[in-house]
Amino acid sequence: MATSRLIGALCAVVGTAFALAGPAAASCGLSGYSYAGVRAARSADGISARLAAVSAPKVENGHVAAWVGVGGTGAGARGADEGLQVGLSAEPGGSSRLYYEVAQPGYAPRYVVLDANVPVGSTHGLGVLEVLGRPDVWRVWVDGTPVSQPLYLPGSHHAWNPIATAESWDGGVASCNGFGYKFSNVSIATRPGGGWQRLVSGTWLQDPGYRVQRRSPSVFLAGRA
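Above: the chain sequence. Below: its structure as tokens.
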């Protein structure tokens, strides 16, 4: 599977405002990556959410995904790609997978499948969190249990604004990928190891062809427009 580009590509879409009513976008998405989600207004030491696919993904080319994470393309020291995310993804003809992806300076991004078949409607508590007492070291959490080894992300301590988002990647071919994901209890960590607080402010992300049905930054649906 072609891995997602973590968070760096979101720079082009932050700050997009939209109305929930009105005509759907003419395009099924931007060329390459398209996003629908929220970026926290401030830096934090982790992010978590309850996440479920509320409809079966319809992927023509590339992949769709929904995730929570930190960092991204060019986010590390001297512009290195650095970040961590955990979420659900799907490819053409495939079921949803539970995965995490990590990018560390000097290494290719690593995509790890945790569950190759996640049913529609199945909800998991997902998060990435800096380890207490170990600055710049993070772990991935699923349903209250750590599922990754400690992962060193230099310079990451309280440096990044976490993101909760869905994405579509067209695989380099004009496509109309479809998805429906529900995010709930989106929270950020105010300190390494925890200090969780509901996300109450952020910047909404929405590319052409996709939309967020907002209740609050901590509860929303992301899908096709």
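The domain at 8-224 is CATH 2.60.120.1270 (Jelly Rolls).
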